[in-house]
Design brief:
The complex is a heterodimer of chains A (198) and B (188). By secondary structure, chain A is mainly alpha-helical. Chain A has eight helices and two strands. Chain A has a two-stranded antiparallel sheet. In chain A, strand 1 and strand 2 form a beta hairpin. In chain A, helix 2 packs across helix 3, helix 5 packs antiparallel against helix 8 and helix 6 crosses helix 8. The relative contact order of chain A is 0.09. Chain B is built from eleven helices and no strands. In chain B, helix 9 crosses helix 11 and helix 10 packs across helix 11. The longest helix of chain B has 23 residues. Classes of the chains: A mainly alpha (198), B mainly alpha (188). At the A-B interface, helix 1, helix 3 and helix 4 of A face helix 2, helix 3, helix 8, helix 9 and helix 11 of B.
C-alpha cells in the first residue's frame, strides 16, 4: 500500500493528504483504519494537525496606514490603467479638428498682428479686409482705388461699406476660431479624461 | 476576514464604470486581509504594504475579467498571493529554484528568522509562527499560503506555482515538517 511506511506505518505524505482531505475514499478509509490501531501514526498525525491548527489560527496583523488613498492616487495617475478602446476614425477626427483649430488660431493671430500695425482707422479697416477675406478685400481694394479717384463723397460711402464687410468677415473668423478651439481642445481633453478615469 | 456581499456587488459595478471612490471603499474593506497575505509571504511590513497597493491596482486593471457573481475577497487575495510569489521568484531566484537540494532548506534561513529565541523575546507565539514561516524557502511558503489561507487544491496550487502536483505534495510535507520542528524548538 502506498500509504505505508516501512510496511507498517503510514508515510508522511499520506498523513498530509489525509489532513488536506486529498485522499480518495478508499485510501482515506484505509488510513483511518490504520490510525485506529497504530499509536505511532496517531501521534504523528496529531503533531502535524497541531501545525495545521496553528497556521489556521494565525491572527491577522493590522495595516499601519490606510492604503486606499495611495491606491486611488495610483489609479488616477497611472498610465497603465486600462484605456477604453477608441476607434481610429474618432481619433482621426479629433486630430483633424485640433489641426483646424491650430490653423484658425494662426490665421487669426496673423490678422490681428497686421491690424495692429495700422496707424489710421482707414488703414486698419483696409488691412482687416485684406487679411481676413482675401478675395473680398482684393475686390474691395480695387474698387476703393476707383472710388478714391472718382470723388471723396463716394469714397466715404464705399469705405463705410468696406468696413462693414471687413468687420463681418472678421467677426465670422473670430467666432469660427473660438468654436474650433473649443471643440478641438474639448474633444482632446475629453479623451484624456476618459483614459484617466476608466 | 471580509467577504463579498451585495454591497460589494454595487461597489464593483461602480468601480467597473470608473468610479475610483467605490474602488477605494473596496480597498478599505479588504486591505487588512490582502496585506496579511503579502506579510505572510514577504515578511516585511513596508514591502507588504507596497505589494498590497500593487495588488489592488492590478485588480482594478483586471476588473472586467472578474466574475462579480463570485466573492471579491478570495479573488483579490489570490491576486496578491500571485504577485508576491512572482516577486519572490524575480527578486530571489536563488531561493526559489525547484532544483535545489530540498534537504538543504535549513541552510537558507537567517539566524534571526529561524531562531525561535528571537520570537520568544517578542513574547508572541504567533510571532514565532511568523518567524518560522519566513524561515521557509519561498516556494515552501507559497504552498503553505495557497493551501492554508486560500484553500486551494493540489492541482490548483500546481497550476499557480507552475510545478507538478507531486512537487506540491512534497513541498507541503517538507514545509509543514520544518514548521513543526521550529515550533518545537520554540516550545523548548
Amino acid at each position: 500500500m502506498t500509504g505505508k511506511r516501512n510496511q507498517t506505518h503510514l508515510d508522511d505524505e499520506t498523513l498530509d493528504a489525509l489532513l488536506d482531505d486529498a485522499l480518495d475514499e478508499v485510501h482515506a478509509r484505509a488510513a483511518h483504519d490504520h490510525l485506529a490501531v497504530c499509536a505511532t501514526c496517531a501521534t504523528r498525525l496529531a503533531a502535524l494537525q497541531a501545525v495545521f491548527i496553528e497556521l489556521n489560527a494565525l491572527p491577522d496583523v493590522p495595516v499601519s496606514r490606510d492604503l486606499a488613498p495611495g491606491v486611488r492616487a495610483r489609479l488616477l495617475g497611472d498610465a497603465r490603467v486600462p484605456v477604453q478602446p477608441r476607434s481610429f476614425g474618432a481619433d482621426l477626427l479629433r486630430w483633424v479638428l485640433a489641426a483646424q483649430a491650430l490653423i484658425a488660431v494662426a490665421l487669426f493671430m496673423a490678422s490681428v498682428r497686421n491690424l495692429a500695425d495700422q496707424t489710421t482707422f482707414t488703414g486698419f479697416l483696409a488691412s482687416a479686409g485684406n487679411l481676413v477675406s482675401a478675395p473680398m478685400s482684393q475686390a474691395g481694394s480695387m474698387t476703393r482705388d476707383v472710388s478714391v479717384a472718382l470723388s471723396d463723397g463716394l469714397s466715404s460711402v464705399w469705405t463705410l461699406l468696406i468696413s462693414a464687410t471687413a468687420w463681418s468677415a472678421f467677426t465670422v473668423v473670430a467666432v469660427l476660431t473660438c468654436a474650433l478651439c473649443l471643440v478641438g481642445n474639448g474633444l482632446l481633453l475629453r479623451s484624456t479624461s476618459t483614459r484617466r478615469n476608466s | 476576514m471580509t467577504d463579498s456581499s451585495s454591497g460589494d456587488l454595487a461597489l464593483l459595478s461602480r468601480a467597473r464604470r470608473g468610479d475610483s471612490d467605490a474602488f477605494g471603499t473596496l480597498v478599505r474593506d479588504y486591505q487588512t486581509s490582502v496585506f496579511n497575505v503579502c506579510y505572510r509571504l514577504l515578511g516585511e511590513r513596508r514591502e507588504a504594504e507596497d505589494m498590497t497597493q500593487e495588488a489592488f491596482v492590478r485588480a482594478y486593471q483586471r476588473l472586467d475579467t472578474f466574475d462579480v457573481a463570485r466573492p471579491f475577497g478570495p479573488w483579490i487575495r489570490r491576486v496578491a498571493a500571485n504577485l508576491c510569489l512572482n516577486h519572490l521568484h524575480v527578486s530571489r531566484p536563488d531561493l526559489v529554484s525547484l532544483d535545489e537540494d530540498r534537504d538543504g532548506a535549513k541552510d537558507e534561513t537567517t539566524p534571526e528568522d529561524s531562531d525561535p529565541e528571537v520570537a520568544r523575546d517578542r513574547g508572541e507565539r504567533s510571532e514565532a509562527l511568523r518567524a518560522a514561516l519566513l524561515s521557509l524557502p519561498p516556494h515552501y511558503r507559497g504552498v503553505i499560503e495557497l493551501r492554508h489561507y486560500h484553500a486551494m487544491s493540489y492541482s490548483d496550487i500546481a497550476g499557480a506555482m507552475k510545478v507538478s502536483v507531486s512537487d506540491v505534495k512534497s513541498h507541503l510535507f517538507r514545509a509543514r515538517k520544518l514548521l513543526a520542528t521550529r515550533l518545537k524548538q520554540y516550545d523548548r
